[in-house]
Write a structure and sequence with these properties.
With 188 residues, this protein is mainly β. It has a domain of 128 residues: Sandwich (Immunoglobulin-like), CATH 2.60.40.1830. Helix content is 2%, strand content 41%. The chain has one helix and 14 strands; from the N terminus they run ββαββββββββββββ. The longest helix has 4 residues.
Length: 188
């Protein structure tokens, strides 16, 4: 059996329990609560991880968008399909809309679900994010546009077709959210 050795420094007795300097390479081996450090290796945090009190998310949440999710002028669309994704506080919408007639009124055609709504601190009453819209048709592509809006707490997609009557349209938009993370949605 090894002998227990009493550590001593400059005439003072040191105990590893109360004097960390008695442990060899303590400063290099222990992660401290404060200060900048480089930590190597994989660390598995069983109970979660937070930065400044906010959860760190390493999942991509997503929700399928189908015809049943349409609102507003639903008769203008024969097919409505896509996905809405969320990674951290960033949301991305990708949608295919098959127009059967024009939607000049710019009605809200899709309400954003919980967990994906726009951040509401931008303005007191109204805030928009423009969409990238493309029509796969030879007819008047320049008059097709959309926006994602936050209006008095309600978030959704408005879509305008100008004089375009029919064809497949593709819509994409990205924005920031401060909604709680989606609970029931799929993730990868």
């Amino acid at each position: 059996m090894a002998d227990i050795v009493q550590l001593e420094e400059k005439g003072n007795l040191l105990y590893p329990k109360t004097h960390t300097s008695a442990i060899d390479n303590f400063d290099e081996a222990v992660v401290k609560k404060t200060g900048n450090e480089t930590i190597t290796g994989i660390k598995n945090f069983k109970d979660g991880l937070k930065v400044n009190g906010r959860d760190v998310v390493n999942k991509t949440y997503f929700k399928e968008i189908t015809n049943t999710d349409r609102t507003g002028n639903a008769a203008s669309f024969s097919n409505f399909y896509g996905y809405i994704y969320r990674v951290g506080n960033l949301v991305k919408l990708q949608l295919r809309i098959n127009l059967t007639n024009s939607n000049n009124e710019g009605q809200m055609i899709y309400k954003l679900p919980e967990g994906y709504k726009m951040i509401d601190e931008h303005g007191k009453n109204f805030y928009i994010t423009p969409c990238s819209c493309v029509m796969w048709n030879a007819v008047s592509r320049a008059k097709l546009w959309g926006l994602v809006e936050w209006n008095h707490g309600d978030s959704g997609l408005r879509f305008f077709t100008g004089d375009v009557k029919t064809g497949n349209s593709y819509v994409e938009a990205t924005w920031i959210t401060n909604d709680p993370y989606p609970i029931d949605d799929k993730f990868i």
